[in-house]
Amino acid sequence: MLTDKIKEIFDKDKKRIGSPRITKKLQNNGVAVGRHRVASIMRENGLRAKAAKKFKATTNSKHSLPVAPNLLNQNFAASRPNEKWVSDITYIWTEEGWLYLAVILDLYSRRVVGWCLSERMTTDLVSQALIMALWRRHFPKNVILHSDRGSQYCSREYQGLLTKPQLICSMSKRGDCYDNAAMES
Q1: Beta-sheet pairing, 97-106 with 111-118
Q2: Helix or strand (DSSP H, E) at 39
Q3: Which pLDDT does position 138 carry in this prediction?
Q4: What number of CA atoms fall less than 13 Å from residue 81's CA on the CB side?
């Protein structure tokens, strides 16, 4: 009976709590049990709490680099390919450590048009993703390319890549994830 109650609490809390919190919940429900007994039952039944995913910031918007205006204004509809692209950086945990992924998405088709994976979150990461997108889409002109205000996107190197194919830079308001919601999701 105790094993069933432990499994029920463990599953209800999405397998994210360990023996101390399960013990407390059982005791609050009038079950007289100790933490070591709960831990022992959990071990016997292969119940091990999943570690919470650590938060890693991917945007450094505290810089003195120039920032572009927000041209999208949360309008993520596109009437043709290569009209509006959105970009962002995320991180992925692997057995070898954290990797950073920069992605560029075409809002018309919702297809990834460029991406780059790296161990470091640098200007080169977002630049390589943009170069891939440009080559794959045959260097389109007048595409609105929207991103957050991260230092990688504001850098001279990245901004220089935008001028040659005449891309139009757009950036989210500071601290507003909804301005790049199509990419964030």
Answers
A1: antiparallel
A2: helix 35-44
A3: 95
A4: 11
Of 51, 54, 55, give the one whose Cα is nearest residue 16: 51
Please say whether the beta carbons of 150 and 123 come within 8 A: no
The segments of the chain whose pLDDT lies below 50 read: none
**At residue 145, what is the residue type?**
L
Task: Say which amino acid occupies 69.
Answer: P
Burial code (b: 16+ CB inside 10 Å, e: under 16) for 124-147 equals bbbbbbbebbbeebeebeebbbbb
Interior angle at CA 72, CA 167 and CA 60, nearest 5: 80
Domain for residue 107, yes or no?
yes
Check whether residue 33 and residue 121 sit in a common domain: no
Task: Please report whether residue 60 resides in a domain.
Answer: no
CA 56 from centre of chain: 9
Domain extent for 149? 84-184
Q: What is the pTM of this model?
A: 0.65
3-state secondary structure of 74: coil
Provide the residue type at 49 as one letter.
A
